[in-house]
Every structure is written in C-alpha cells, then in structure tokens.
Amino acid sequence: MNNRTMRKLLAAGAVTAVSLAGLAACSPSDAGSEGGDVTMTFWHNSTTGAGKAFWDSTVADFEEANPGVTIKTQSIQNEEMDGKLQTALNSGDAPDIFMARGGGKLADVVAAGQAMDITDLIDDETRAAVPEGVLSAFAIDGKIYGMPTAVLPGGIYYSGDLFAEAGIEETPATLDELGDAVDKLKGAGVDPIAVGAKDAWPAAHWYYFFAVRACSQDTLNTAAETMKFDDPCWLEAGQNLSDFVDTEPFNNGFLTTSAQQGAGSSAGLLANKQAAMELMGAWNPGVIASLTPDEKPLPDLGWFPFPEVDGGEGEPGAMMGGVDGFTCSAEAPQEECSAFLNFFMQKEYQEGYAEAFQTIPANQDAQEVVEDEALLAIIESYNEAPYVTVWLDTLFGQNVGNALNTGVVDLFAGQGSAEDIVSAVADAAAKG
C-alpha cells in the first residue's frame, strides 16, 4: 500500500507531521522518569499461540533495551476486552497501555480525560513508515491518542474447496450472485455462511456492510457528526439485511455461535470446512489458522469484497474496516509509555506482528512479509477502494454502537425489524 491509498482510511482528516526526537531506545532516566524504576501495565487480546508469544517477546526486548522499565502484561479474551476495559476506566484503575480502535469509542475515552496525547511523542521513524491516514485513525480534534498496529478492512472469507465442490466458479460480485452461491452450497449439503451472533458484533457487521452499500459517504460522515439517522438509507440497509436473513444463509445455531472461540465458533466452522464463508475483518486468517486441525493457515482460504447491492447510494467498491492499535492512559509514565509504542512500530516488530497475527501491518515498510493470498486480495481491493469507513459500532461510540449491535441481533433472531434497528440507534443517540 502506498501513502496515497492509505490516506483514504477512515476519512479522519490529515495530521500535520512534526519532527521529533526518537524515544524507542531511551533509558528511563533519559526519558525523564525522575531517576527511579518504572512499572507499566499492558492489556492486549492475544491469549494463546503466536500472538501471545509475539507480545511476550516484544515486551522482553523492550525491557532489555530499557533497563529499569518493567511491563506487566495481561492477556484478555477479545470478546471480554471492551467490558473489562470500560470497567477499569470507570473505576480510575485503567492499565497504562490498552487496546484502541479509534472512532467514537476513542473519542469518549479522550473526552473523559483518560487517554494520552502522543502527537509530539511519535518518533521520526514511525512517522516515515506509517501513513498519515492510518495515524489519523486515532486523531481526535487534530491530536493523536493511539498507535496503530494493523490495518483491518473487512470482507467475506471463503473456502475454495467448498466453493469448488458446490460448483461455484466465480466469487460473488453482487448480492444476487451471493444468493446463488448460498443456494448451491445448500444443495451440496454445506452451511453457506458462518456467523458468531452470540457475540453480537459479527452479526452486526452484516448491517454495517449493507449500510455502506445503501448510504453515501457523506451520509455516513454526517451521522457520525450529528448522531442523526433520519436518512432513508439506514432503513433500506436494514430491510436489505432482513430480506437476506430470510433466505436462511447462516449456520445452524448461529444465535448461540461465538465468533472466535474454539472449533465450534464461526471462524472455527470455516477453519474445519463446516461452513463455506464468513464476513470478517483482516485479522481473520490468523484466527482461522489457530483453529484448523494442524493449527496452520487454511490452504484454500480466499477473500472477496462485500457484494454490490442494487439501488444504494454507496459508491461501488467502498469498503469498511478499522485500525487496531494501542493507547497510553493519561496517567501512564509519559515518555516510557510512548517509547514502548514507538518500539513495537519498528519494521522488525511490525513484520513479526504481521506473521504472528496473519494480518496487514500498519507500518508500510513491513507489508512485504504478507504472503497470505486472502490478505493480498484485500490489499488489492483496498488499493482500488474510493473510500474506507470505520466499523459503525466504533464510529458511533459505545452506547450507540451497542444499541445498533443489539438491534441487529434481534432482527437475526426474528424479534426485531429494520425499523426497530433505526429506532434503537436514534434512541441511544438521543440519550447521549
């Protein structure tokens, strides 16, 4: 990916580059820690395998390079992270370094005075390697409050073997073609699409993408600014989703299926050839690899963009995704914490991150290590996308995002409608 392409991400606005002194190799005394030993806490969501090993190794390397600094790491399961982190923030006992994904969720943390402004603490090496459009995913009012680690556009992952067995020769480019693929897979005795609706957000992703097809970029941006959802496209997206759900494309028991935990999760069903497709972000190849019988990448894993939908105002090729990263707490030791953020953004660590998580690193100099065919397909589509918007629950913040996700799950369960989704979101926005 080049700078021009990456600037499209999230339409968050440009951030002015500043020439800064490097911090990554500083010792605590050099970094202004008042001469004493420093201990920081670090929460991430890699509980097993290569991801956890990566962070353990990276932390050890940082501690070796910075005598007197200790980082105490806690691994928290992904679906538990938001809740535990919010509780910690509310209690005033937040970790020094914690996960961030930008958007309204980060804006809420910043508004509460709980995140560190690192704008002037990003070193020159990181500035040169990470495009402004990616850094600005963590920008609030022109200030940067987090360091990105991965670029994570979404789309549909699929098993090439199961597609071939069902006689599907081309990946679906339109919603009608996706419906045809669903019918062929059913005819072959295969669950067409896995979805972890138990965790809410995977089901809600389906609404998000229908909204990207139904709503223009201006409408999406305006809704994020005003928290008003009166454009008819929001209802159109819900109705299109409702019609699709009525075709019964999902795995048996999808309402009680988790997203990433074990062979019975939606990722596990794809990993073990029990379902043919899953709508997910660019972290999925690594999750799937951890759930295959030999815990290796799925050889036939492919990817295609969310299909185009007739009648919508979204520009063809528009994508949705996010940027994963980490934020320093406002109460963290400033220079030691920012030094750690700069440290793991070095090319060698971003390469290790990409390999451990089977994903697309934010440092563009490290992207040459990406070999996974599904990820390469994502990069190609991303390079051609007219714009990329962030996941809607992230964009709209915790309260509105949770209402949206719950409304979508209710629709999946047959207990709600497209109108109910829009009403729930509007009600949550009105409450602030």
TrEMBL record:
InterPro entries found in the cross-reference section: Bact_solute-bd_prot1, SBP
Record's keyword terms, sorted: Signal
Domain of life: Bacteria
Record flagged with keyword Lipid metabolism: no
Name used for this protein in its record: Extracellular solute-binding protein
PROSITE patterns: PROKAR_LIPOPROTEIN
Signal peptide segment: 1-24
Species of origin: Mycetocola manganoxydans
Family matches, as Pfam families: SBP_bac_1
